[in-house]
Amino acid sequence: MSYGPGLQSLIDQTISVITNDGRHIVGILKGFDQATNIILDESHERVYSTKEGVQQLVLGLYIIRGDNISVVGELDEELDANLDLSKLRAHPLKPVIH
Length: 98
Prior knowledge:
By secondary structure, this protein is mainly β. It is 9% helix and 42% strand.
């Protein structure tokens, strides 16, 4: 996981965040602090299911506490736009155990 200055290069870019409780949140990184608390804009949570496509729950402007973040990654917007999430099936993510 990137800390501090590593996140600076991702400001105003779409990122993907996996939280410790297994949530997958996608949004535009607007800011962060020394504790890796992050601010996302235009964010949504992707909820996975083996029975139906991926649900996207709109969150809007959203803050995630740094101690609840497991993984932060840059999202390839072109590749992501070409995915048909309505046909994607997957098991929900399980909580991360540290």
